[in-house]
Amino acid sequence: MTDKTKVLLTGDRPTGKLHLGHYVGSIKNRVALQGQYDKAFYMVADVQGLTDNAENPEKVRNNAIEVVLDNLACGLDPAKTTFFIQSEVPEIAELTVFFLNLVTLARLKRNPTVKDEMTQKGYGEDVNAGFLIYPVSQAADILAFKANVIPVGIDQVPHIEQTNDILQKFNSLYGEVFTKVDVKLSETSRLVGIDGNAKMSKSLGNSIELSDSNEVIEKKVMQMYTDPTHIHVQDPGKVEGNVVFQYLDIFDSNKEEVAELKAQYQKGGLGDVVIKKRLIGILQEIITPIREKREFLAQDPKQIMDILKAGTEKARETARETLREVKQAMKIDYF
Ligand code: ATP
Ligand code: MG
Q1: Which end of the chain has the smaller Cβ count within 10 Å, N or C?
Q2: Which percentage of the chain shows pLDDT scores above 70?
Q3: Which ranges in the chain belong to alpha helices (H)?
Q4: From the alpha carbon of 189, which atom of ligand 1 is closest?
């Protein structure tokens, strides 16, 4: 059943090819939910991608098409979801400027996801202003389309909270223009990277990509972090923190066999290679059809650009309409 009162929006930063974390954290939900609401949008977040890649515009430009290919290959359908490019909808930038008046510097600095990312990137106080305020720009991405259903991974929750703070402030100052935004978290809202240290991320080099070949998948799984104290097959091994078992819990549909393997591993007598081989087969089975569809779609880049062009025009119509309403509420509708 479609809920005509709701609008869905998601997107990716074009900073690299997408990986299994995107697939389980967000894309699966996007695909399942498209068509259930009044409108659905998919945004190539190139403006946000530039906030930490200002010196590398080619990277952002080249990956714009890659993230679209990844989403199309996973089943996001341009007939149901409007694909657009963030920088081509200048109304978003305009709305960002208005929203900046509604947020304090202290609040921006408290955002835990931004804090983590700043530590990871070694920014400290030298963070550029664009990066620090990207959650405000993200609030504008969402609200320019009056979107209220956002399928994302758990790292995005603080940003959605910030969006709700901004819209409440806006509504209380200027009148009820926006409705509360809901996060749609998936069952796996944070997939750990193959190193076991952090979330799988494009920027950390710890990912398995949706475009990886069977050989690369095999190589990456063989490198996965398991239990460093499990040296000989007969040694008892740890399941907690063991990335291979974390992945089997998520991707292996035979839960009973996984439980048996865990028991055997903990007791001793089960080698890492056996569980890794099992995981390799499962991941190859998931990724192969995505990779093949991706390769097929990549043969016609013009078609991808046409999808983006038509979608961007459509998205801009919606954003223009919202900005008209916003400016009227803010009493800056002069002519
Ligand atoms: P970057 O390192 O450039 O920030 P990223 O890998 O974090 O890249 P994003 O484009 O920032 O990817 O995230 C896009 C979407 O995918 C967001 O909804 C985010 O929550 C989700 N996502 C990204 N990585 C993971 C992960 N490891 N587990 C679950 N969801 C994820
Ligand atoms: Mg990210």
Answers
A1: C
A2: 100
A3: 20-22, 28-33, 46-50, 57-73, 90-100, 105-110, 112-121, 129-132, 134-143, 157-174, 214-222, 243-251, 255-267, 272-298, 301-329
A4: 29
Give the max Cα distance, the chain: 80
Q: How far is the CA of 328 from the centre of ligand 2 (A)?
A: 34
| Ligand 2 centroid to residue 202 C-alpha, Å | 8
Task: For ligand 1, say whether the CB of 22 is within 6 Å of any of its atoms.
Answer: yes
Owner of token pair 């200002």: 54
Query: Do 287 and 212 contact (CB within 8 A), yes or no?
Result: yes
Distance CA 272, CA 237 (A): 9
What pTM, to 2 d.p., does this model score?
Answer: 0.95
Query: In three state form, how does the secondary structure of 69-117 look?
Result: HHHHHCCCCCCCCEEEEHHHCHHHHHHHHHHHCCCCHHHHHHCHHHHHH
Helix (H) or strand (E) holding 183: strand 182-184
The answer to whether residue 299 scores a pLDDT higher than 90 is yes
Hey, which of 9, 10, 20, 26 would you mutate to test ligand 1's pocket, going by the most ligand atoms within 8 Å of its Cβ? 26
Nearest CA to ligand 1 atom 6: 201
DSSP track, 200-213: --GGGT---BTT--
- With a cut of 80, say whether residue 1 has pLDDT above it: no
Residue 60 is predicted with a pLDDT of 98
